[in-house]
């Protein structure tokens, strides 16, 4: 795709574009206080996120309140496209399905400038030139599969793809990733520098992205940096006091120029961070949180919260949970690449017991790459059947049969090196030990209990796991593919859990898994790579119907690119009875404070 072609029509794109009229709504006078997820705070504001900063807190609870994607998903409690919340009208397909034409609605930025096709082109240019740094990148997928982009007018842009794809997949998993960004304010090379058309060349697009990426990592300037005051979402950071980099607390105020629908009276949103679930629960008991969550350890306190003016609402995410496996760890990666080792470990994760005794409310299993909840036709019978039920005996048998001296409550060692069917596997030397560092985020008592239970169960088969609880942002930063298989930098972890949910299907709504399990995918933290998996994922993008998805998900459930781990509802939300309009909750984890009202 020629980057320069996307800006060739810049002159007429901005000409004759009238300002949209902001959507009318009630007077915005109320303040709503929302609890951030435990031990996870916003730390990135630029919508083009890298893997190290890709988290629900940065996205659904922060950035998307200010920056809106081209197409919005989440409607009536289901992971469906929402036309009224989308910046563009529904796409029009032509040329046998290869060409997609998009017409923007007459929306505008907070500084009064119209949102135009030039802003879409600006996003495209930055993505194309910096795709390797983007968490949403899948080689061969968007933007690689676009061969031509045409800016056809102030509000119209078309994309020609390299082949005809499933229209459902294109809308839900490709077009869903596009977020127009303000070219008239952000196309700069340095702070205070003039706005140009730098993104017209690859070198310029790299330089602009580098500037914006660094600015986004400068947390102490969030509420004073003029870049982040230009938004198109319903809220923007309060000037001067909108973000506290020492705690992650954020204050957003209503964007009066917001062009989308809004129905509530909330004019200010306070996002409050907590270092522990206990601290958040204390705030609930004090009544200082309007929209919070009940820790599973405090479920017995539900009636007490009801008496002081809360109602409980389990929030199910369109998500799966898993433990990432570091296939490029220079010491244990060669061991983890053996399927039988992953099968043994999967047999040692007692999902039903974790759900019954540790998660207690709203827990449900993950046996493959497709969520079991909310109920959809996507999950197969094989995936739902638990291909690797809990069995210490099965785990010990797999390891013993493949050349390991099994040492229950000790550490297994390889005694039959080699690549034969009864040997440890190619590249595993005699005496190699099954000892793994497991990263997980602190702050959740139930997750900490699960990690302890996992460590105990693994030890019964001689697999030594060393759990390391660290802040959630530290886990995200560490769980990235090693630059080289032989490098030890940043590769010490063997297993990693981000805390449920580990993966939310957004902005890729159709659960084909390309972003997490395709070779070299942007969010493939463990660097899993399997040509068969790639082929099956690709088939889900092309054919109509669900059979390609079924074949992919059954294969992934069997081959264990990760260790499947029990999921839970995103949270047991505790919503003040004074707060109206917050239900049903969105399975893509977006929130809609512009539609909420506070009474009393």
Can you characterise this structure?
It contains 17 helices and 25 strands. Strands 1, 8, 9, 10 and 11 form a five-stranded mixed β-sheet that branches. Strands 19-18-20-15-22 form a five-stranded mixed β-sheet, with helices on both faces. Helix 16 packs antiparallel against helix 17 (547-559). The longest helix is centred in the C-terminal third of the chain and has 16 residues, at 445-460. The chain is globular, with a radius of gyration of 24 Å. Mean pLDDT is 90; it is low at 1-23.
List keywords for this structure.
600 residues; alpha+beta; Dipeptide-binding Protein, domain 1; D-Maltodextrin-Binding Protein, domain 2; Dipeptide-binding Protein, domain 3; 3 domains; five-stranded mixed β-sheet; 17 helices; 25 strands; globular; disordered N terminus
Layout of strands and helices, then pairs:
Layout: H1 10-14, E1 30-35, E2 73-75, E3 78-81, E4 92-94, E5 99-103, H2 117-130, E6 146-153, E7 156-161, H3 167-174, H4 183-186, H5 202-216, E8 235-237, E9 243-244, E10 249-254, E11 266-272, H6 277-286, E12 291-293, H7 302-307, E13 310-315, E14 319-320, E15 322-325, H8 333-336, H9 339-347, H10 351-359, H11 381-384, H12 392-401, E16 404-405, E17 413-414, E18 435-441, H13 445-460, E19 464-470, H14 472-478, E20 495-496, E21 503-504, H15 514-517, H16 531-542, H17 547-559, E22 563-564, E23 571-576, E24 579-580, E25 597-598
Parallel strand pairs: 1-11, 18-19, 18-20
Antiparallel strand pairs: 2-3, 4-5, 5-7, 6-7, 8-10, 9-10, 10-11, 12-23, 13-23, 14-21, 15-20, 15-22, 16-17, 24-25
Helix pairs in contact: 2-5, 9-12, 16-17
């Amino acid at each position: 795709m020629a980057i320069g072609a996307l800006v060739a029509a810049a002159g007429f794109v901005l000409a004759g574009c009238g300002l949209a009229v902001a959507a009318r709504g009630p007077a915005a006078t109320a303040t709503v206080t929302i609890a951030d997820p435990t031990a996870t705070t916003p730390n990135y504001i630029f919508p083009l996120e890298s893997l190290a900063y890709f988290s629900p807190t940065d996205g659904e609870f922060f950035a998307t309140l200010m920056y809106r994607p081209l197409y919005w998903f989440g409607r009536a409690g289901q992971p469906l496209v929402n036309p009224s919340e989308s910046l563009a009208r529904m796409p029009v397909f032509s040329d046998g399905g290869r060409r997609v034409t998009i017409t923007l609605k007459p929306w505008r930025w907070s500084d009064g400038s119209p949102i135009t096709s030039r802003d879409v082109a600006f996003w495209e240019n930055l993505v194309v030139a910096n795709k390797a740094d983007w968490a949403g990148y899948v080689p061969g997928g968007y933007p690689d599969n676009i061969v031509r982009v045409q800016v056809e007018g102030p509000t119209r842009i078309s994309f020609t793809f390299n082949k005809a794809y499933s229209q459902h997949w294109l809308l839900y998993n490709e077009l869903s990733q596009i977020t127009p960004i303000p070219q008239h304010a952000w196309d700069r090379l340095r702070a205070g520098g003039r706005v140009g058309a730098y993104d017209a060349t690859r070198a310029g697009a790299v330089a602009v992205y580098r500037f914006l990426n660094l600015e986004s990592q400068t947390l102490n300037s969030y509420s004073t940096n003029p870049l982040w005051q230009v938004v198109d979402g319903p809220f923007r950071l309060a000037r001067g006091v909108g973000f506290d980099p020492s705690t992650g607390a954020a204050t957003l105020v209503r964007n009066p120029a917001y062009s989308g629908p809004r129905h509530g009276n909330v004019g200010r949103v306070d996002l409050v961070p907590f270092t522990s679930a206990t601290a958040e629960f204390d705030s609930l008991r004090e009544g200082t949180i309007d929209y919070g969550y009940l820790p599973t350890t405090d479920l017995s306190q539900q009636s007490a919260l009801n008496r002081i003016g809360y109602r409980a609402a389990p929030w199910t995410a369109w998500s799966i949970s898993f433990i990432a496996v570091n296939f490029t760890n220079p010491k244990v990666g060669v061991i983890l690449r053996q399927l039988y080792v992953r099968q043994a470990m999967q047999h040692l994760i007692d999902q039903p017991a974790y759900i019954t005794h540790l998660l207690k409310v709203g827990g449900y299993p993950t046996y493959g790459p497709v969520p079991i909840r909310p109920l959809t036709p996507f999950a197969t019978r094989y995936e739902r059947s638990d291909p690797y039920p809990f069995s210490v005996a099965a785990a010990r048998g797999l390891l013993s049969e493949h050349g390991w001296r099994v040492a229950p409550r000790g550490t297994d060692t390889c005694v039959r090196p080699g690549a034969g069917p009864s040997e440890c596997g190619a590249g595993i030397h005699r005496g190699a030990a099954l000892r793994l560092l497991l990263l997980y985020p602190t702050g959740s008592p139930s997750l900490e209990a699960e990690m302890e239970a996992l460590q105990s169960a693994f030890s019964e088969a001689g697999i030594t796991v060393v759990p390391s609880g660290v802040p959630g942002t530290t886990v995200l930063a560490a769980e990235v593919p090693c630059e080289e298989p032989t490098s030890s930098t940043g590769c010490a972890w063997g297993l990693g859990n981000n805390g449920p949910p580990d993966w939310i299907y957004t902005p890729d709504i159709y659960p084909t898994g390309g972003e997490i399990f395709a070779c070299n995918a942007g969010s493939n933290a463990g660097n899993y790579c399997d040509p068969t998996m790639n082929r099956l994922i690709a088939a889900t993008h092309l054919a109509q119907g669900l059979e390609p998805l079924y074949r992919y998900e059954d294969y992934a459930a069997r081959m264990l690119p990760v260790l499947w781990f029990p999921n839970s509802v995103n949270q047991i939300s505790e919503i003040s009875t004074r707060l109206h309009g917050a239900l049903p909750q969105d399975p893509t984890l977006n929130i809609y404070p512009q539609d909420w009202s506070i009474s009393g």
